[in-house]
Please model this.
Amino acid sequence: MEDRKSVALIIPSYIVAKGLETILDATGEFLVSENIYDCSRSGKARLRNIDPDIVVIDPAVLDFQGRKEGRMMIGELCDSVVLALEGPAVNDEILRQYDGSISLYDSPSALVRKLHNAIDSRQAEPFSDSGELSVREKEILVCVAQGMLNKEIADKFNISIYTVISHRKNITRKTGIKTVAGLTVYALLNNLIDIGSVQS
Amino acid sequence: MKEILTPDTVLSDMIDYDFGLLQVVSRIGLDLKYSGLRISDACAGSGIDPGTFLLICKVYSSDGFVPSKTEIASGNISDIIRYLHGSHLYYTGAALSSLEAFFDRLIAPCEEKRREVIRRFCTDYRDELVKHFAYEEEVVFPYIESLQSGKTVEGYSISSFEEHHDNVEEKLEDMKNIVMKYLPAECDNSGKIAVLLSIYHLQDDLRRHTYVENGILVPMVTNLESNGR
Model:
């Protein structure tokens, strides 16, 4: 039992959650600890408490605005590997933020494989955590280098200023660079922007 | 070992003990022709208060040095300003020029576009440092001098002077990280090390310089301000 990876579900459909639970429990490798159903305040608190190895979330539980930030929101609660359930509520951009995704039509073996892949992708992260920026962080870095203000960046990506600030903190943590001038040099040296776009 | 920094030590012995203090000797304007004399006499020859000279030496020579109230009360403000001024000239002159020369050599093999970007970052840093010093030279020092001559100055106080250094410090820190981690592969390792040594040296020097300002000059002037009232 000890070796099983604990899985928490955030899936509003009882049928889907129960199905997933049955399949995963039968593998002997995973154990679904519970379904949190939604991302209410109590749901979030619960997630923080159980701190599972893996979370599978149906992004449909997040409202449209929050969907893009869902992965980050969970990241603030626990350090789990997070997979999204594919469906009409998600597009590729959203899926990219997750460590992996599963489909309703996956076979049991495909499910297990996808969970393993997601865990492996996270284990590669200590390296990426020391330097590699995420796609969204790169987008925000480009805006910062071009001299955009936090408010302008928030509007452009339809996210909150708080989220922008938190991305910027992560960018600084990963790169070790604090000032706008320094970030601009970083962006240019990494070919994220062209020198023409920052003439000041 | 601390007892080396006393008025009775021969200046050349002090320099032998910690050659880093040569920069203090130079910036405060102590003439090396006096290096065979005791510090008290060497200072007298150059018209400098030995206690104040030694106070600055202690900031440079021992990490985490905190001056006593007596040291602050007996220090000579004009000598501190003389030192700070000499220090500004050193940073904007020799220190930055050699850093920039090392940088130029390091990035010489890079393509033109990248050279331009890196050079601009260095120029920005220089501009910021110059601007920062100009504020001290044109606003802070004249303010202190008029306080010393007994005039009251309205609308300014030394308390608004602190904290200024943050951004200057951050840019240097960024420069360090860029050189260490993000320069293109064509920049060679020994060139990076030369630049890094130069940055670390400047960074340490600037921190001590800042301490002389915030930990010595500011309390001295605060005393002066309250005496005037």
In short: Chain B touches chain A at residues 113-114, 116-118, 121, 124-125, 167, 170-171, 173-175, 177-178, 181-184 (CB under 8 Å). The radius of gyration of chain B is 20 Å. Chain B is about 70% helix and 0% strand. The first helix of chain B runs from residue 11 to 17.
